[in-house]
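Researcher: Checking consistency across runs. Here is Bifunctional RNase H/acid phosphatase again:
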Amino acid sequence: MSALRVVVEADGGSRGNPGPAGYGAVVREAATGEVLLERYAALGVTTNNVAEYSGLIAGLQAAAELNAGRVDVRMDSKLVIEQMSGRWQIKNAGLRPLAAEAAGLVGKFAEVTFDWIPREQNRAADALANRAMDEAAGKRVPDVAAEPALPAVAAEKPRSWAPPSLENATRIILVRHGSTSLTSQGRYSGRGDVPLTDEGEAQAMAAAGRVAGISRDVAAVLSSPLSRCTRTAELIAAEVGGVPVTVMDDLIECDFGAWEARTFAEVQERWPDEMAAWLESTSVAPPGGESFQAVAKRIRGALATVLSAYPGKTVVLVSHVSPIKLILRDALAAGDAFLHRLFLDAAGVSTLDVWPDGNIAVRSVNETAHLR
């Protein structure tokens, strides 16, 4: 088996759903980012999901042509990534043959990974998909190849301005736990099991009232295993009718390692180089701790489990700053800078709706009016 490792960036879209559709795929050398192959084509009239699967298939076929041994697939389609990873069922009969074809191609390689990325990081493949649709419509399109450093700017996929229907949507209510002694001092609080303060209890009760105001028809209250979250979750569960609290280990906070219980200023003074590297890249972990990339991977798995277990229901997730920020970053298709710019208050509430096809609507971020 070849030692060549490649990255496949794939996308697809339709102008209307269904509508005139096309796909694009870019294959890069993993170590350098150099573009090795590009593929794009129009598909006639079909759906976004069919186009996205078609882009994946084209990308895998191109990687096979290069005799790659290992493939890292990156797409902004949560539906395709979750289904190909085996975390979501393929309920649409029309997608099953495409998924089977993609799975057959996966078997040709020694290793294939699937990762969701924000759309802004998938611009090259998106641009090729739009090029395919433009050419099929008879538009003249300049020949612009994807570059590693300056990928082609993608045309935005059409979106309806009409409010999305809540039919079949799973509503996720994200709640950060109430304040602890470390919260009030601005200290890193990761895996240490620090209880709520009296103020934190009051904040959690207020958050419970806000959650009940959003929905009293809550199917589940899921919590990080740490007591500051389980206590917050218990108060919420009591307010919405006594739903039992279920602990999900993957909702736990990032492990801050040697930085635990220290302030930002203390960390910057003692570990200036490590702090700079951590702020620069989500792949970097604090000394003895966990990177945001690792947190994101387990949080995506947890969210996929929730969506599979509670389709069309309302679910409350009680967690910590890092997991909630990462969920919101992915939901908003934002870049990594989002993680250091968003502030989440203790007992703040955020709400999003997720549909079976992977579409997401963020309803609110860090609501705090209930705390005043």
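Researcher: Does this match what you'd expect to see?
Model: One thing to look at in this run: Confidence is low (pLDDT under 50) at residues 147-161.
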